[in-house]
Design the sequence.
């Protein structure tokens, strides 16, 4: 198995396990609450992270297309996967703090999209 496949699996399994832990903790009632001001701040932080992830993936995609060798393209793909993981993990944190998975589910979808859009090997 190539290192890229292992990295992708570790990222996805880690995010899914984090989501599972959050699910269990929220069901058991062992989670903190947040104030309305904190929730509003989390929304703005989330919007900024999503904007950074979309812009970052766009830039990385263009740079990977222009790369001359497979090694540099692979490095760029790992950066794109990290952008996907970033929004998924942030969604998990928001789910843990607020009890709403509205940021986690789109983040998880975005992570899967980055794993599909940026393959493990250059084709």
Sequence:
């Amino acid at each position: 198995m190539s290192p890229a496949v292992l990295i992708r699996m570790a990222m996805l399994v880690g995010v899914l396990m984090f989501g599972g832990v959050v699910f269990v903790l929220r069901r058991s009632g062992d989670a903190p609450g947040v104030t309305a001001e904190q929730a509003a701040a989390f929304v703005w932080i989330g919007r900024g992270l999503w904007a950074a992830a979309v812009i970052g993936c766009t830039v990385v995609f263009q740079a990977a297309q222009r790369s001359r060798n497979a090694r540099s393209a692979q490095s760029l793909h790992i950066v794109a996967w990290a952008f996907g993981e970033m929004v998924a993990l942030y969604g998990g944190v928001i789910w843990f703090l607020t009890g709403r998975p509205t940021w986690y589910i789109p983040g998880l979808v975005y992570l899967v999209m980055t794993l599909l859009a940026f393959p493990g090997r250059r084709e």
